[in-house]
Amino acid sequence: MQQEKHIHLIGICGSAMASLAGMLQTRNYRVTGSDAAAYPPMSDLLKALGIAIKEPYAEANLSPRPDLVIVGNAISRGNVELEYVLDQRISFRSLAETIQHEFLLGRESIVVAGTHGKTTTTSMLAWIYEVASRVQAEVAPSFLIGGIAENFGTSFRVREGKPFILEGDEYDTAFFDKGPKFMHYFPDALILTHVEFDHADIYDNLDAVKTAFRRLVNLVPRRGRLVAFDGSSNVDECVARAFCSVERYGFKSGSHWRLQDLTHSGGNSSWKIFRSGKEWLQVSLPLAGEHNALNATAAAALAAGQGIDPASIVEALSTFRSVKRRLEVRAVAAGVTIIDDFAHHPTAIRETLKALRAAYPGQRLWAVLEPRSNTLRRNVFERELVESLSLADGIVVAGVFKQESIPEPERMHPEKVVAALARAGHDAIFYATADAIVQGLTPRLKPGDVVAILSNGGFDGIYEKLPKYLTTPQ
Predict the structure, then answer these.
(1) Segment 194-203, tens digit of pLDDT
(2) β-strand pairing of 177-180 with 172-174
(3) Do β-strands 365-369 and 450-454 pair in parallel, antiparallel, or remain unpaired?
(4) Distance (Å, rounded) from C-alpha 3 to C-alpha 166?
(5) Dihedrals φ, ψ of 392, to 5°?
(6) Which of 38, 165, 367, 406 has a beta carbon 3.0–4.6 Å from 392's, enabling a disulfide?
(7) Nearest Cα to Cα of residue 366 among 348, 384, 349, 353
(8) Which CATH code, of 3.40.1190.10, 2.70.70.10, 2.60.40.420, 3.30.1300.10, is assigned to 106-318?
(9) 414-435 per-residue burial string, b: 16 or more CB within 10 A, e: under 16
(10) Domain residue spans in the chain?
């Protein structure tokens, strides 16, 4: 890849694709990109970078002819731009392959992987390294995160030093490479948070998911380190045959890194971390939820083992500002707090609602779910979804995003989830669209209520529509 090359990204608004666009721009490539639709936060990032988003997909978006095309993993055969690339024999690559060859060679690859928590944990780890670089200049990190880290205001940074911190995604790489993206990152050090069945569109079952994570573990060299959650039998299986040092973190008494005396106060958490059985650090975090304390402990453990000083770890965690779309307060309108969370799995929904209970004790909590992820759009987790949503005082479930694209026997039917919640005595209702939710839910909201909007997409602008409707006289 030469510096004068023009690189075009198909599917540029994906969280990792938008970040890669910015990373390539730092290398003085001419970067263009296209997508079917753009929405924050990645559309805002690209705008700030001065990278225009061409909408919709069209052959004309590839004129003048680019030297290289990066094909996003959401792009499949039949996409008009991909078909043009193949017909014209324009060179193309996947995102993960580009990251490996362009940014990781000669670096220390530090990867955070797992079904849940990897975006937040990656952001925490990058911030720890950033704070540490004020006294240890050599650890100033490059990073790639699947979301906007609020401490940085961006999802990526490229520097000349050795540490490169990456979120390792288990989703497939591209239409021509169906292996996980993280298999291209060859970690020198690895965090493994959780392993559960997810991505039902590409993994047949839990065994297939565990196989992918076992293969990632198998890439860590003998000199490397693996920090792994201690509260999952699936994680146990995945790390059992590691060739590197394995350090467990969590609540178990025998774990190398142990959380103890965890307390929550409003939106803050504090706890002690024990290292090899001895009290090591007292830390605080301006985020609620047991899952965030676990994420922070994993980041602290990995950083400490890589030589980051404890004082920097304590300072970084106490000043961590979360990630866009993770328990993000989008508005307070008419006394109602509206929270945006990137929910993609019943376990993530459960932990989000538990964290909100801790952050807003005594306040009425509403869960508004759009089944949008490739797992939630399928019926594999309907029972677990009922259990997770039951933690809210009121539940609203929207229509399944592009339900028609899911084979009928596999479809999740939100009416069934709502009926099961109602049978169990919960206040639950189905509204097909975002507009119907806004109109139906608003009259029931009262000052002091907390509304958690759970979706991994734009949800037809509900984040803007709901506060506007709440503050507009009807």
Answers:
(1) 999 998 889 9
(2) antiparallel
(3) parallel
(4) 24
(5) -90, 160
(6) 367
(7) 353
(8) 3.40.1190.10
(9) beebbebbeeeebebbbbeebe
(10) 6-94, 106-318, 328-470
Using alpha carbons, list the distances in angstroms from residue 362 to 171, 291, 357, 365, 449. 38, 21, 8, 9, 10
Point out which residues pair with 121 in neighbouring strands.
none
pTM: 0.88
Residue 425, token pair as written in the block: 């005595």
CA 138/CA 90 separation, integer angstroms: 39
User: DSSP characters for 397-443?
Assistant: EPPPTTGGGS-GGGB--HHHHHHHHHHTT-EEEE-SSHHHHHHHHGG
Residues shown for the chain: 474
How far is Cα 257 from Cα 293, in angstroms, rounded to an integer?
Answer: 12
CB 140 within 8 A of CB 152: no
- CATH hierarchy code of domain 328-470: 3.90.190.20
CATH of domain 6-94: 3.40.50.720
Q: Would you call 289 exposed, middle or buried from its count of C-beta atoms within 10 A (0-12, 13-18, 19+)?
A: buried
Tens digit of each residue's pLDDT (9 = 90 or more) over 277-286: 999 999 999 9
